[in-house]
């Protein structure tokens, strides 16, 4: 092991950003095409939304498998294999003949994207801790935030020139580029002497150990509930804004980008806020504010007060509070289990995407209306507040002053 120069460190961080963006791109790029897919494959809107649920389930289950594997054999091999699976699934999505096949392939896409998500998170924990980890996660959220801005816009543009199948052609090209960048520029970050080789028994023991940590479990549930509010918006927004408010695919892409701007801005504001407040303080304030804005959204959606603006303003404010919660809850959770970072990150991601997978179809079941979306958004934020204060108890979280990165890689 040896210290890396600043230039190589920047390269690693950039690749981590691209890996972190693969999941959001996979989820968001085809959102403008959901109504079109329903028509083309002669199925219902709720059934098409299940393809999004399949992707989220793949992301959840994949992380549970790949996280412990990366703790045992290192980060690079599971990562490259997972992104390779994503490439193959994306190619097959282009020629999917029906919704059942498309849904199955979307699960495989999720499994591939899971490798990128969980290993990127574990690498952050390999290299950084404490405040430094929270700051880096905030920077990665900038890249992750750009993906939701670009993805529906790209998807809408592709639909302007071709069918929804062209969206998966673009996803294939993106995944191939990410695979190449990872293979060329991302070194192994988990030295052999830090790997865990307990097999299935060891993996189960590690998961059991994590479940005994009440604070860790509470933090990942908090992160998951905030995530559910985000995915309620992701799954329902195309139907709400294109059908209820009559927007075109391109107009929807611009509105979706507006929400992503708020999310991105909040993640970058978090870096400045960390200079004065702890991650726990920021997380508490963000979730309480998000719950209040969620209630306002529910009122305006139910009453129709304010029209489109009455929906967009509180919705974007909720997304901004999620942007503040997203870096801090994972950083606080992972800081407790650096000895099993891959497994800890896997459970975090699996719970996040698992809860998101439940939230996505729930909006459809409730009617794909602004009220349905508001119910799930407000419920997710309110639930996060309850769990934070009854299970985690912010006052009991230690103030971690570990602000120095531990930037080294294995050779």
UniProtKB/TrEMBL annotation:
A Pfam family (short name) is MFS_1
Question: Where is this protein chiefly located?
Answer: membrane
Positions in coiled-coil regions = none
Organism superkingdom: Bacteria
Topological relation to the membrane, as annotated: Multi-pass membrane protein
Instruction: Write out the annotated subcellular location.
Output: Cell membrane
Asked if the Swiss-Prot or TrEMBL record annotates the protein with the keyword DNA repair, the reply is no
Q: Which CDD domains match?
A: MFS_MdfA_MDR_like
> Where is the Major facilitator superfamily (MFS) profile domain positioned along the sequence?
9-396
Regions that span the bilayer? 12-31, 46-67, 79-101, 107-128, 140-161, 167-186, 215-234, 254-274, 286-309, 315-334, 346-366, 372-392
InterPro entries from the entry? Answer: Efflux_drug-R_Bcr/CmlA, MFS, MFS_dom, MFS_trans_sf, Sugar_transporter_CS
**Which key words are in the record?**
Cell membrane, Membrane, Transmembrane, Transmembrane helix, Transport
Protein family according to the UniProt entry: Belongs to the major facilitator superfamily. Bcr/CmlA family.
Q: What is this protein called?
A: Multidrug effflux MFS transporter
**Taxonomic lineage of this organism?**
Bacteria, Bacillati, Actinomycetota, Actinomycetes, Micromonosporales
